[in-house]
Amino acid sequence: MESNETARPHTGDAFTIPLGGGKYYLAHVMADHGLNQNYVVVFDVVVDDRDRAIDGLQGATPLFSALVLDTLFTEGRWDVIGRSDGDPNRYLPAYRVSTAPDEWYEESFDARRRRLASVVEIEALPLRTTCSPTERSATGFRQKQSTRCGRTRAVNLTQGDLFTIPVGDGTAYVAHVVGVLRKKNFYFVVYDFRTDETSAERDAEEALQHDVVLAGQTMSTLFVDMGWQVVGTAPVDADRWLPAYKVTIGDADSWFVVDFSEERRRPATAEEVEDLQFRTTRAPAGIAAAVRALAGKAPWEDRFDELLPADARRAATVFRD
């Protein structure tokens, strides 16, 4: 293999990003765009100096992704350590581009396909931005990305959207958007229904016949980066699933009950202060990890118990009167 001073990364290259202390994140070049640019995905896999094997990439949870410059490799900061199969179509983004004032298009990553963008797409699609952070560590790269390179790519979800959460082996669980709060936060349920990713759009509504196994609130930012895809829409019984929460307003002992939409609120009883949960927005990576555990691909962790649907009290019951 060529030295880091002259080698250029290519589609399929697996590489490491230093964390410090002899630790590295594993990452993958999903596409070589030319012009010294590469689209990379960094995975939630940490290796050390003694064993920088790429086996951990298979089925790993993606942390973040970006279009980056070759300089991050050629300056010796990131080391290519092998080749790995990947699914570029799962990660490569589309962008919004403008050729005239108020004339927006959706453009494919390779710039070979372009069509007029809808109003929703104009708001949701990112501009093409290339990252060239100077930090040598994955932590520095991630911080730069979150502030300058458009790391978070949200989609505009609506109540009733059906979407998939990949397991990492070509299959996915089907989930349902139950409620949306301020555009970027949403409450979801995951059905006990797993299907091939390639047939998920056709099979999605079949999930409605199955029990709910996970439920919670998360963010639509990183929805695309995680490989989640909207595959349909269907009516959902929001009253059955949306929870009520306890909050303090004013002083620490002033407890109230609030519904998911924050439209209903009243003082909480002593029992509700004891029983109700606080509102918690969970990171998409944590949801993906719970889904992998549900599929038997990883051990079940205690933190996943909070996603079990029986744990939440419903707003429809709390505000019945």
Query: What is the H/E string?
Result: EEEEHEHEEEHEHEEEHEEHEEEHEHH
Instruction: Tell me the strand percentage band.
Output: 35-45%
Helical segment count: 9
The assigned structural class equals alpha+beta
Q: What global shape is seen?
A: globular
Low-confidence stretches: 1-6, 133-137, 143-148
What value does the average pLDDT take?
A: 78
The strand order across the widest sheet is 5-1-2-3-4-9
How much helicity do the residues have? 10-25%
Query: Rg, please?
Result: 22 Å
Total beta-strand segments:
18
Sheet of most strands? 6 strands, mixed
> What is the CA-CA span between the terminal residues?
71 Å
Note down, in words, how this protein is organized.
Strand 1 and strand 2 form a beta hairpin. A 6-stranded mixed sheet has the order 5-1-2-3-4-9. Strands 14-10-11-12-13-18 form a 6-stranded mixed sheet. It has 9 helices and 18 strands. It is of the alpha+beta class and 321 residues long. The relative contact order is 0.11. 17% of the residues lie in helices and 37% in strands.
SSE topology:
Elements: E1 13-20, E2 23-34, E3 37-48, E4 62-69, H1 71-74, E5 79-83, H2 88-91, E6 95-100, E7 103-107, E8 114-116, H3 119-124, E9 130-131, H4 138-148, E10 161-166, E11 171-181, E12 185-196, H5 200-203, E13 212-219, E14 229-233, H6 238-241, E15 244-248, E16 255-259, E17 265-267, H7 270-275, E18 281-282, H8 284-294, H9 315-318
Parallel strand pairs: 4-9, 13-18
Antiparallel strand pairs: 1-2, 1-5, 2-3, 3-4, 6-7, 7-8, 10-11, 10-14, 11-12, 12-13, 15-16, 16-17
